[in-house]
Specification:
Layout lengths: L9 H11 L17 H6 L5 H17 L16 H4 L2 H14 L14 H4 L3 E5 L25 H7 L3 E5 L12 H8 L4 E4 L23 H9 L1
Parallel strand pairs: 1-2, 1-3
GO molecular function: alpha-L-arabinofuranosidase activity; xylan 1,4-beta-xylosidase activity
Protein name: XYL2 arabinofuranosidase
Keywords: Glycosidase, Hydrolase
Amino acid sequence: MLGHHYTHTFLETAVASVNAGCNLELSYGMRNNVFMHIPQALAMGNITLQMLRDRVRPLFYTRMRLGEFDPPAMNPYSALDLSVVQSAEHRNLSLEAAVKSFVLLKNVRGTLPLRPRDLSSLRLAVVGPFADNPRVLFGDYAPVPEPQYIYTPRRGLETLGANVSFAAGCGEPRCQWYSRAELVRAAGAADVVVVCLGTGADVETEAKDRSDLSLPGHQLELLQDAVQ
């Protein structure tokens, strides 16, 4: 609220937030945060003790339901590991979610879907900075990636038995350095070209906004060359 000039001090922010019903602050630690000013607001009479208790109660109720105060042996989630998270059941559910969340903006001549039975007879080129770079496939607040469980577009198509050639064209999403020759070698002899572009957390993330919606760096040039 300080950044938006709704309040002018952390004390004012604490009072306004508690009075508005807010009971949780996403802070950067124990310095320069708002909630440390709540005792001062309470002493000055800007908020009441009952109001403070009303705000805190649902937080601790939720934490108790989650088992945060229980011994680890009583918390079933403490026994979960990768063997559970990456079980066949969970991976199949993730696949179903991915399939159902795809959006086709334009499907000219019924190009998609590519059928597995046809892939062995097709020459595919997978190109672009997102084609085979596991790191850039994750956004804000993602877990630490486990490479063995990550299927990039290139790896996924190769798993299906496709004859795949690959060219990143540029090594990272900003695409400040672009090799057209590398792309032409991969795409020139292909029946189908899969172009993998985007932004990723390197370009756009929380507190790092873009000033326009253009593809970063030479990515548009890469796309135009692939189409050509």
